[in-house]
Amino acid sequence: MKLITVVIPAYNEEKSLIYMFKRLNMLARNNPKYNFEFLFVNDGSKDKTLTLLQRESEQNSRISYLNFSRNFGKEIAVAAGIDHADGDAVVIMDADGQEPPELIPDMIKWWEKGFDDVYARRKGRRKGESRFVRFTSWLYYRTVQSMTRIEIQIDTGDFRLFSRRAILELRKLRETDRQNKALFSWIGFKKKEIEFEQQKRAAGQSKFRFMSRLHLAIDGITSFTTAPLRLATIVGMIIAFAAFIYIVIVIFQYLAGVPRSQGYSTLLSITLFLGGIQLVSLGIIGEYIGRIFNESKQRPLYLVEHFHRAKLSKNAQPKAIIKENNGAVAKKLDER
Ligand code: UDP
Ligand code: MG
Asked: For residue 8, how far is its CA from the centre of ligand 2 (angstroms)?
């Protein structure tokens, strides 16, 4: 029987988890042709999330969970899930119930037809999202897309199914400042879009404030492209060229004896303008240097405090991995 691992990052989700367990169990019950493993990644929650996971895993053999040593952020939590998911296919979804697990059988269907990345695109507008947020995110993706050859999936979160081979490739990407969406686009493979209506959070509230979204947006740009660096060069060249023309004009005016006025305010505004551009350019360079710095430290992406592996029945063990890697992973399976 094929194993589907559902990876679910969870940070302070004690209120949502109960609904989540119910819906996931329903999913497993309604699709007996597949074996399901639900791999939660507890991202340093400060509430009872871990206790709930422990308790559920005692009576539910499908539950696996990773407990981080502290909060590492959602992008890293998803990466850890990808590292530890042994399924023939791996689904990633949020813990808050905004993404319906009921869509997973549909994803599986497309995966069985040979797709490697079945991603769910939000239909219509996001609930509780202002016009401003929608506009900026539209503008953002348009801009980033124009700077890269990699195709970006718009209106798509992390709710996706990956084939085994896509997961194995994703595991090789070890960058620290990561935006998963960029990596998911980067690997390519056969992608299939399906649509879904995003639901309200089951409980609790969104953990992403404006600033963390901004950071994620900047990470997105830097992980997709180095085009902003070139932009600084191009803007610099344009301004230098304009300045050159202007100097030539001034010299000619001087030689021709054209009277010239004292341009104090012009001078000031141009100086400020250029100062601004220089600071922005430095900032852009700084963003990339900061990333070089972070990557050069070569720290592990995350630290695991405890890993509880679901006690799946023998016939549920994914044959794919045993074939792929007779050594290490097969041994890991034996330890279960
Ligand atoms: N999350 C996480 N670590 C964090 C923040 C969030 O693992 O530091 C998880 C969270 O538990 C949820 C998912 O990431 O399962 C998405 O978070 P949220 O619903 O707050 O974001 P939104 O849906 O508003 O984008
Ligand atoms: Mg959410």
From this structure: 12
